[in-house]
Amino acid sequence: MNPTMSIDPTVQRVRRQTLIDLLQRTRRRVPEKVAIVYEGKEYTYEQLTFLVNQTAHTFVSGGMKKGDRVAIMSKNSLDFVVAQYALASIGAVMVPINYMLTVTDVRYILQHAKVNTVLGSTEYAPVLDVSSAEIAVANRYLLDTETEREGWLTLDVLRKDQPSTLVEALIEDDDLAQVLYTSGTESRPKGVMLTHKSLISEYVSVIIKGKMEPHDVMIHALPLYHCAQLHVFLGPSIYLGCTNIILGAPKPEAIFDAIEEGGATQLFCPPTVWIALLRHPEFASRDLVALEKCYYGAASMPREVLKELSNRLPNARFWNFYGQTEVAPLATALQPEDQLNKLGSAGVASLNVETRIVNENDEEVARGEVGEIVHRTPHAMTGYLDDPEKTAEAFKGGWFHSGDLGFMDEEGYLTIVDRKKDMINTGGVNVSSREVEETLYELEGVSEVAVIGTPDAYWIEAVTALVVVKPESDLQEEAISQFCRERLSKFKIPKQIKVVPSLPKNPSGKVLKRTLRDEYSNEL
Hints:
There is one protein chain. The chain is α/β, with parallel strands linked by helices. Helices cover about 30% and strands about 25% of the residues. The protein has two domains: about 10-370 and about 385-400, Rossmann fold (3-Layer(aba) Sandwich), CATH 3.40.50.12780; about 425-520, 2-Layer Sandwich (GMP Synthetase, Chain A, domain 3), CATH 3.30.300. The strands form six sheets. Strands 2-1-11-10-12-13-14-15-16 form a nine-stranded mixed β-sheet, with helices on both faces. Strands 4-3-5-6-7 form a five-stranded parallel β-sheet. A four-stranded antiparallel β-sheet has the order 17-18-20-21, with no helix packed on it. It is globular.
């Protein structure tokens, strides 16, 4: 056979490794094992696959086909999990949407992704109604309810009479699986295109670096619309055949119950949530002995908090995971044995990742020298949706450019020192400083504005706005705050606002944000 010829479709099907294949193989290995625990009900892998297949047939009956873009806006639920695998079996492309976004943001994503089907929970159906009003949407499916709503199809009712057999579609490993939107540092979010291969390569890295095992019981409390919970924890857990406890939100009491009553062994939270758990009045009285593997990311864990957590959870080990949506998202990991002696480090490259630090000429720098963090990995996206210019910029020189600045020590441990384009990470969510700045510039009376992240005991980084008002204006902080509340998604609203006489600039007129961070980190 000529090696340059394409693989026979029959052979290709045998060799295929996609998201739906992972679920099918796990179901064959452990059909009676509990896959999902949600709202007090347990679903085995056999039952989960049954629901997935019925849902896929429902979508196909409604006209869905391979390549269709399908938005989902819902808090964590059974149907969120089911939808991911049902869409994968058809070859449709899932577009998860942050449910904290404004109608304007949601409308932009629906239009940019060319979404033609919408999935939503009852809570977010009104937002989706308004956001999709001017878009040619074929169907709107209501999740997690049997209640009817005008203009929507009730998924739980429709799928009951559908077949439970696998929907076969001509899918290949590098077909597009999902488009995840990240605000990055632009005024508009970018659509990150991830294939089945990208995701599954990342799952392997996660499983190895995170010491995950089939007997683990994982709590999923952070939003599944975000790549961290969805692809660092849910995907690998399904791959292994773990039990997954799905919570609607990271409420401390629910997390404690999942550990105490559900025997949860694994938990991922950003440092802000770990701090909330630690300071909760029930933390000391609950039986949390089952918890063995604890993961954090999105920000550094304060040393004293980590020490206290380690003392209060004697059976638990901690991992720090670093990455970004564009690499599906894990890039590096700091292992439990390095937590205190390398605290603040993002660890070393994961199994399927090669990481280095480069200067502006894409030349690798010496150990200890700060530069841009770049990666080579099969985890990587295939590009930004409909944005070849930004895609080329991200992949210049044959490496994926993270946009983060960092350095490696003599042992190869990575430390992130800055965000190259001033992204603010507040409570584990990325906020574009430029987007907040552009919003503030719309307020009459604003002369100049700089938005930075400042250290915060709870949020780790607080969105902070430093505003210079026009000489003739009497604009005050409260009026500025009210303006933001009316126009920005809740998590983007500055936690702190200060009217200042001027902003420091370099000779070319660029605002020196590093100077501002140094000046206001301790003052505000």
